[in-house]
Amino acid sequence: MATLSYLNKRVLVVDDQRPFLILLRGIMNNLGATSVVVVQNGESAVAACRQEKFDIIISDLHLGSDKKNGYQLLEELRVRKLVKATTIYMMVSADSDRPMVLGSIEKQPDGYIIKPFSQSQLHNRLAKAYQKRQTLQHIYQKIMDGDNASAIEECRNLIRSGNRYSKYCLSILLDLLWREGRNEEALQLLNSISDAKPLPWINIALARTHLYLGNIPDAMLLASRVAAQKLYAVEGLDIMAQCRVKRNELDEALKTIQTSLNLAPFSLTRQFLGCEIARLAGDFEMAKNCCQAILEQSKKSVHRSVTHLCNYVRSILDAASKAEDKKIRNRYHQEAMLVLQRNRNDELLSRTKESFDYNIFEELIGARINLIDGKLLEAKRALNATQYELRQRFEEYPMALAPDSLTLMSDLGEFEEASQLLMEMRSSNLPVDPNLQYLINNIEHRQNEIRENYNKYNRAGISQYAEGQYEAAYQSFLSAQELAPMNTGVALNLLQCLIKLMEKMQKPDQPLIMKCRQTYRMVDGMRLPESHQTKFDSIKDKVKSYLEHR
């Protein structure tokens, strides 16, 4: 069995408190380490790991109130592959607060040690972690290389050998099988090792596997057993919440995921799940709070993205759009604008590599607020101006801004533009997180519901117009416009129809002239697609003459 010698090991120590940093360096020197690098924050640790691959990293959990913490550092180093398959990552903390401890353990460091501790205690933890890493290094390496199939075979071989780490290797194997969608294999494996009183972690693995296979009653039963215990309770609650969603027990699912979030809030996956369930249950305030937590937790992590800021602002507007009380709706609007103001100079924006323009984002959010308040023309003018600016400034559409444009297009009834943008989003490399997927699905669902009837009325109007049935065509176009209130195509069709109706009048018909003026304002001054512009140019003078002389 491999014995840990520190003589040839490169060690990185990360702690924001200089006295403890010096103490830890002294301990590692006493243990025989001659190469010990010390840094006081997560960013410096990442920079150090870009320079060299360390054998041992010892990091404090808390690295400053506004800095990357220890488990965010661990995750970034692994995602960016700045550590070796054999690197030991030891988490150190004086914090025994349950949410923070659970948040750290969920990232699976090689060890977690609570201050104060002795030199011998630290050595014992490091030695155990070293032995495990050395034994499983081939599995870890294949996982790092993305070769899950080979990693699965390595796991099976090690388990068959009866190695002392077989139990731990089993958990790695199950995770790999789930990732590859080989859930039936996972179930067979678990059934082969479970007995009359299986351990809690096996029960939770069984519950998760049954959930993936759609065996909801079995998943629910096993998860509820685990949730009643202290160990793995949070994982049990997560699975219970998902099972209740499958059963359409949304209120109960909401209570369950809220309990889980209260116990262990420092998980982006759990916050995304909370957000999803909250929306399904109609609790848009909770969905907003989850989006805020996702933003705050991701800012200093490898998952930082301007998309999380956008999603948070969008979640506020979602809550506003569902509020029936005008005062509550205005309060949400003010909150959205305040978040925009506070984050204008955020470091996140200066560091992002995503195509993004904060001014345009603010304009789009302002347009959405106008839309919620019923100011459709103002919303359409802002949408029209921002789309022209985006197409002029960027070679490819900035996908971080696409959801707000898409929402406006859909709600205003500009289905053709929305369909085109949806196609661009699908073909882009934009990471689709659960929040973005919810938005896309929601918009597609609304479009499919409305567009079929819209097309029916619009086509009927076109056919009736061609046959000279102008009154019938006018009514059909009005019906289409009720479904798509600011659609440019139907507005132009209405203007054509209104001209024909007014040509037949002996004296001005004020309701028709008022409708003509209102419809004309919807397209006048807009930057239109070429086909629409040609059509508008052909009727513009005639429309203006009716409006000026009558």
UniProtKB/TrEMBL annotation:
Could you list the residue ranges that cross the membrane? none
- Gene3D superfamilies for the chain: 3.40.50.2300, Tetratricopeptide repeat domain
Domain (Response regulatory) spans 10-130
Domain of life of the organism in this record?
Bacteria
Keywords from UniProt, A to Z, are: Phosphoprotein, TPR repeat
CDD domains found in the cross-reference section: REC_TPR
State what protein this is by name. Response regulator
Lineage from the top down? Bacteria, Pseudomonadati, Pseudomonadota, Gammaproteobacteria, Alteromonadales
